[in-house]
Amino acid sequence: MSARKPSPISSERTPLLAEPEDAPSHHPPSPSDSLDDIQGKKRKRWPTIVALTVLCLAVLLICLGLALPSVIEEYAKEGMVFEPTKLTIDSFTSFGVRARIQGDFYMDASKVQHKATRDLGRFGTWIAREVESKTSTVDVFLPDYNDVLLGSATVPPMKLNIRNHQHNNINFIADLEPGDVDGIRRIAKDFLDQKINSLNVKAIARVSVRSGLINVGKQTITQFLKLQGQDIPTVPAFDLQKLRFAEHGLPGHPDGLKAMAVVSIANQYPVTFDVPSLAFEVLLPDCSDDYLSLGTARTDIIHIAPNKNISVGVTGIVQQLPTSLTSACPGSDSSPLDSFVADYLGGRETIVYIRGGDQDESTPEWIGNLLKDTILPFPLPEHQFDNLIKNFSLEDTHFSLPDLGSETYPKISAVVKVMVGLPAEMNINMDVDKVRADAEVFYKGDLLGNLDLRKWQSSNATKIDGDLLVQSIVKEAPLIISNDDVFTSVVHELLFGEGVSLEVHAKVDVHTNTALGTFVVRNIPAQGDIFIKPINGGFKMPEIKGMEVVETSEHALTLQAKVNVTNPTEYSASVPYCNVSLLVNDTRVGYAWISADIVPGPNEVIMRASWEVGSVGREWLSQFISGYNTTLTVKTHANSIPRFPNVDLELTMPTPRIFGHFLKETTMHILSSTATFVLVSPFALYITSIAAHAYYNGSEIGTINWEYPFAIEEGENVTPRLPVEWGGNALGTIRDALGGTLKVDANADVGVKIGKWQEQIWYEGKGLGAKIRL
């Protein structure tokens, strides 16, 4: 290449690196010592490797071009000092880079260890005084990489004073040309993978030198340099800032997605230059070991100033997602895009990869070639989407319990409403038309079970104040209960507590329509809370009516009744079958079962109950018809609901009244010594026997002993005239009350028969009004 005229010396003279010490060295010199002198003893920096290495070696090798005796040559090697103060890239050219280097060059005899070499060197350089070079070239190779050519430098002519401590201000423009592009890519990959622990550098200079009238001619000089430890740089830190997403294309007719960001890169080096706008491909890993193109990106012009962080504006465009990016990998139900989105939304480290793309005409071809096959990892900033799901609620909830003979689980149907808090930087329209999920339900940190939503459910999305409201109609989603104890706690809290807050952890698949097209994003992590209101808030005692006997046996009586119950919650339920035990004083006296569809508010259900013969049941029934305040305990048992955990629920409640009083009215006939009674019964039965006693003020006034059956119909019934045997002075008391009413107490043992079922019960009444007639 032809020589280029040096530019004027820059006014920036402030050294950017520490100056060397004047004291003599106390260890044998080596090529690496020269590097330490260049950089200073405090810190070793990468500029000498990347940019300054080529130029500094050029200066050193030019100075070594004198064909001096070996002693003088040794003096030159040990005593040369070059302190770079500034490196500026003047321009990017079609062949490489045109750079300006500024610095201070001088000889320091104190750095030469051996006195003889030091003295002869000072004498020789005093005589020579100056050296002058013509246009020179320097090639830099890396022996560790099969002598790959890192780059070449063309250095203009230069004149230097080489006497001891004669400072030379250097300011020249050199042309730098990259070497083997493939080799540089390999080095770059090892550098990014942090595999370089040491690096050997070999520089070969071809330089023509003269000193005064002596023309030494063209010399080829080789110099070696070993870099290790802190000489090896680390990947510069960078920070992705101001990341925003928007639709790309005409308003209302987007054809893609646009991402805008500012990347801040740490720069600790004394370099100044502008980098032209660069184009990149944005890649994601595919199912194997290759990459898939996600979109393109372009940087703004990059301004680099010495020792200042670099800010780079980047705009990325995604216009169409390839099918291979959204298709599930072989042997998996996840696509490459699924894994990427799940990691990003889950707050885990998420990496995209960039590779040089098609550059425009303003970018030199060699830059495009260098970047084209170089793939660099680009970590996205970790983003914890803690508030992604702002609200998770169920409306119009319907529970379906398992039926007899069914192998299914309890099922839930509901309108699921999810308020998604979109990040402020995502200014895009999104329509979700179907969702599905596999959800785990927790209560107080313990797993309750799994809500199986693996079937696609129709949904729609509405944007509200920057958030996204997704509504989905869930139909009969199985609830697979995995912890019976937790389920029992939930039911008890619903019945007797203040409601239940359930936590749902789900992996959601979303079928979405966006500016990128229609595709499925799988395994999006979601979390939300569902509060179920307590049932006891508006609980009312059931109202029983329409009771009838539907079946009898010698040991049991089966009753059926219409029961009016009020569901105080907003939830509905289908109960194909539910069976509970009926207890009196911890003794089972029968069973009750229902089949019903329960809706919020009033409900009429059909209930059946089987009443068994036994002393406890007989006692309770006697108290009940006598008007006592009785209670009945309802308790669940195993298989109360088929294939449903036993919630061990026990509820004791006052017995609802199904009629006013069994004995409504009594009439005593004096002349015939008989009595008639008005009895009230909810269903038809037979009275098989009566042994009764009546008292007034503690004195017995009459008895009845009747052993002939008579029928009682449903409702009010007047019994036949039953013979009365008056007691002692009873007639006088009764005559005194003739035409009026006498308040009496009574007790009786009554035989009752309904179909095949018979039972002997007792009855007690206080203050009964008995009419006295002739």
Automatic annotation (TrEMBL):
UniProt entry keywords in alphabetical sequence: Membrane, Transmembrane, Transmembrane helix
Region named Disordered: 1-38
Domain Tag1-like fourth Ig-like: 540-649
Residues in Tag1-like fifth Ig-like domain copies: 660-762
GO CC terms in record: fungal-type vacuole membrane
Pfam families: LEA-2_1, LEA-2_4, LEA-2L_5, Tag1_C
Boundaries of every Tag1 C-terminal domain copy: 426-533
Transmembrane segments: 49-72
Name of this chain's protein: Pre-rRNA processing protein
Biological source species: Exophiala bonariae
Higher taxonomy: Eukaryota, Fungi, Dikarya, Ascomycota, Pezizomycotina
